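Re: weekly structure request thread

Next one in the queue (122 aa):
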Amino acid sequence: MAERITYHRVYEETGPREGRRVLVDRVWPRGMRKEDAHLDEWLRDIAPSTELRRWYGHDPDRFDEFRRRYLAELGDPGHAGAAERLREMAAHERLALLTATRDLDHSQAAVLAEWLTRGGRA
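Done, posted below.
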């Protein structure tokens, strides 16, 4: 399943083999018009909580702890519907997880891609 799930910056050009494009940020990407995003879906409820996002601040030194806390959040009832929706999509089609974050390897999209390749389990 790993080859079917990728993650990219939402600002990048669309590729023909990306599959379903899903924005996984809670906040709309700065400076991007909705019609330019070429999204299939925006799953803002799968994004980390505002508190966790603010604590993390995209500091790579905090990534391991961010990852641990975010995986725990994915098991919370507030994420249940969005988590199930994402698992369902990943089971049936190629999936491109999109984020505005500059450092992709230290983003929630990277954590989600890993989580989905393990079957949506923390």
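The longest helix spans residues 77-92. The chain has one domain: 2-117.
Next request, please.
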